[in-house]
Amino acid sequence: MTHLVAIGGSDAGISAALRARELDPTVEVTVVVADAYPNYSICGIPYFFSGDVKPWQSLAHRTHADLEATGMRLRLDTLATSIDVAGQRLTVRDSTGAESQIAYDELVVGTGALPAYAGIAGLEQLTPNDGVHVIHSMGDTFALEKHLTERDPKTAIIIGAGYVGLEMAEGFTGRGIHVTQLQRGPEVLSTLDPELASIVHTELVEHGVTVHTNTTVRAVEKTTTGLVVHAEHDGQPVTHTADLVLAVVGVRPNTSLLERAGATLGAGRAVVVDEQMRTGLPHVFAAGDGVTTHHRLLGLTYLPLGTTAHKQGRVAGENALGGAARFAGSVGTQVVKVFDVVAARTGLREHEAAAAGYHPTTTQTAADDHKRYYPGAQPISIRITGDTESGLLLGAQLVGRLGTETAKRVDTYATALFAGLTVEQISDLDLSYTPPLGSPWDAVQVASQAWSRTQTPTGVLA
Amino acid sequence: MTHLVAIGGSDAGISAALRARELDPTVEVTVVVADAYPNYSICGIPYFFSGDVKPWQSLAHRTHADLEATGMRLRLDTLATSIDVAGQRLTVRDSTGAESQIAYDELVVGTGALPAYAGIAGLEQLTPNDGVHVIHSMGDTFALEKHLTERDPKTAIIIGAGYVGLEMAEGFTGRGIHVTQLQRGPEVLSTLDPELASIVHTELVEHGVTVHTNTTVRAVEKTTTGLVVHAEHDGQPVTHTADLVLAVVGVRPNTSLLERAGATLGAGRAVVVDEQMRTGLPHVFAAGDGVTTHHRLLGLTYLPLGTTAHKQGRVAGENALGGAARFAGSVGTQVVKVFDVVAARTGLREHEAAAAGYHPTTTQTAADDHKRYYPGAQPISIRITGDTESGLLLGAQLVGRLGTETAKRVDTYATALFAGLTVEQISDLDLSYTPPLGSPWDAVQVASQAWSRTQTPTGVLA
Question: What EC designation does it have (chains A, B) (predicted)?
Answer without folding.
Answer: 1.8.1.14
